[in-house]
Amino acid sequence: MAVLGAGDRGSIYAGFLAQSGATLAAIVDRDQQRARHLKSRLSSDALLFSNWKDLIRAIQAGSSPPANGRAAAKAIRKPEAVVIALPDAHHLEPAIAFSRLGISVLLEKPVGLSLSQLHRLGRHVNGLRRKQNRAAIVVCHVLRYSDFFGKIKCLLQEGAIGEVRSILHSENVSYYHFAHSYVRGNWRDSRISSPVLLAKCSHDFDLLGWFADSEFRSVASSGSLSTFLPENAPLGATERCTDGCPHSSRCLFDAPGTYIEGLPMKRELARSGFNGIALAARAALRFPALFRSSPGLRRLWPWPYWPTSTIVSGPVSKDAVLEALRTGPYGRCVYRTGSNQPDHCDTTLEFENGITAIMRLNGNSFQEARTIRIDGTEGTLEGRFGQGGDLRLHRHGGAKTRRIPVEVDPAGHLKEDRALCHHFAALMAALRTGQDQALQAADRTLHQVIQGHRMALLAEKSRTTGKTIFR
Ligand SMILES: NC(=O)c1ccc[n+]([C@@H]2O[C@H](COP(=O)([O-])OP(=O)(O)OC[C@H]3O[C@@H](n4cnc5c(N)ncnc54)[C@H](O)[C@@H]3O)[C@@H](O)[C@H]2O)c1
């Protein structure tokens, strides 16, 4: 396989696919330090490229005899698959280019940034099949591969709540995650990345379409940016948290507090119950000096995990993080970044089969968790996914609530990332042995994913125009 984008997502998928037996043949990243870091982490002898078009040229050179008797500077055997984990604006073009060569694609969302791009992707896949090209395109909607949402889908298919009538789904993004990604970070400006309803909630619109099992009929959305505005900055706040801001000790969004001390993440983990991670987080909050000085614990300071791991190019160190905060976007005062993403938004959907749904984006949450309630003619399913999981089934005709056991990561969605990679590796194996039904199933899922993206884009259009949009 080849990996395009050696950042957070690309590194995670490369690791899990390597565990599933894949060999890393090439890494593409314009930041060559990141590419080298991933290469050495996986002890791989992958070739490094800074541009995916150079990789295409190297693949073409590897599959044709040298022109004028001269070998190309870089030639590489055609990989079986590529992972595309570049920023949002660089998904569709490489997906089309690599799949045209017969290379299957594990593609990060969003798969397109406009309705016309989505249409183009749909047409492209139809064209591939007409030409007997069997390259699959699998989108990284990792929640589909989770135990939690997978069980909901099975229960609905088994008729556990009768006929579905309505769905209430919230994507609760913790306040510091929202600030990191959608206020300071890569998605702060929807015009140069993508609207948060697409970037974050395409997963959720996809789930709604999957559960409703129907095309959507209408979308109406309202919401705004209310928290991260200049008028909400406390008096005297500096442009950067590292400029000696007088509010640093009280500010929820203080950058050194977030990226070096890991305070918001530790607080969230500390609240997550009575497991080992929660106890360790409580100890870290109570005895911070111990974590800075004790040899055994020092590797947890500065905070080495997400989101800090995404703001430096190489290994996390205090100096590297401070430099990133002094010079990069993550040290800026959250109230003055000029973000244009709504931090709260409700979308109402109606499906062709009559099911109605409400999808809430909440960027001011105390914890990172999706919550869902699905009501049917014979029962209700209720659950929380994030910081552990909880799924309950109430049957109208029963006297007891059934608690459905679910496996959910205490933090993040690594389990789901791993499950997606196993699914992709299994699909590759099925394609190798000519199992066309696996490819047909992948194409059906891709069609649903494109519908979910359409819902997200139309929700943004409805939010900004104030109109209900019909399909
Ligand atoms: N499926 C999910 O749950 C999920 C979660 C988070 C992010 N994402 C998506 O994954 C994608 C990657 O996100 P990330 O968090 O890994 O970002 P990241 O910034 O950590 O990684 C992106 C990498 O691409 C490199 N890059 C940027 N432009 C490039 C170019 N033109 N050519 C070559 N390399 C380039 C960067 O140097 C960086 O290493 C985004 O589109 C994001 O929306 C998906």
Short account of what is shown:
The chain is an alpha/beta fold and 471 residues long. The protein is built from 16 helices and 15 strands. Nicotinamide-adenine-dinucleotide (NAD) is lined by residues 5-10, 28-31, 34, 51, 85-88, 90, 108-109, 140, 142, 186, 199, 310.
**CATH topology (level 3) name of the largest domain:** Dihydrodipicolinate Reductase, domain 2
In the CATH classification, which architecture of the largest domain applies? Answer: 2-Layer Sandwich
Gap between N and C termini? 38 Å
Proportion of residues in helical segments: 25-40%
Low-confidence stretches: none
Number of strands: 15
The global form is: globular
CATH-level-4 superfamily name of the largest domain: Dihydrodipicolinate Reductase, domain 2
- What is the radius of gyration? 23 Å
Search tags:
16 helices; binds nicotinamide-adenine-dinucleotide; alpha/beta; 471 residues; Rossmann fold; Dihydrodipicolinate Reductase, domain 2; nine-stranded mixed beta sheet; six-stranded parallel beta sheet
General description of the model:
The chain has helices spanning 8-19, 32-41, 52-62, 92-100, 115-130, 147-157, 175-184, 196-199, 202-212, 255-260, 263-270, 276-286, 288-293, 318-327, 414-432, 436-465, and strands at 2-4, 26-28, 47-49, 81-84, 104-107, 137-139, 164-174, 216-224, 344-351, 356-365, 369-376, 379-385, 389-395, 401-404, 469-470. It is built from 16 helices and 15 strands. The longest helix has 30 residues, at 436-465. α5 runs antiparallel to α16, α9 (202-212) crosses α16 (436-465) and α11 (263-270) crosses α12 (276-286). It folds into 3 domains: 2-140, NAD(P)-binding Rossmann-like Domain (Rossmann fold); 143-228 and 341-413 and 439-470, Dihydrodipicolinate Reductase, domain 2 (2-Layer Sandwich); 232-336, no CATH class. By secondary structure, it is an alpha/beta fold. It is globular. The model has no long low-confidence stretch (mean pLDDT 95). Strands 14-13-12-11-7-10-9-8-15 form a 9-stranded mixed beta sheet. Nicotinamide-adenine-dinucleotide (NAD) is lined by residues 5-10, 28-31, 34, 51, 85-88, 90, 108-109, 140, 142, 186, 199, 310.
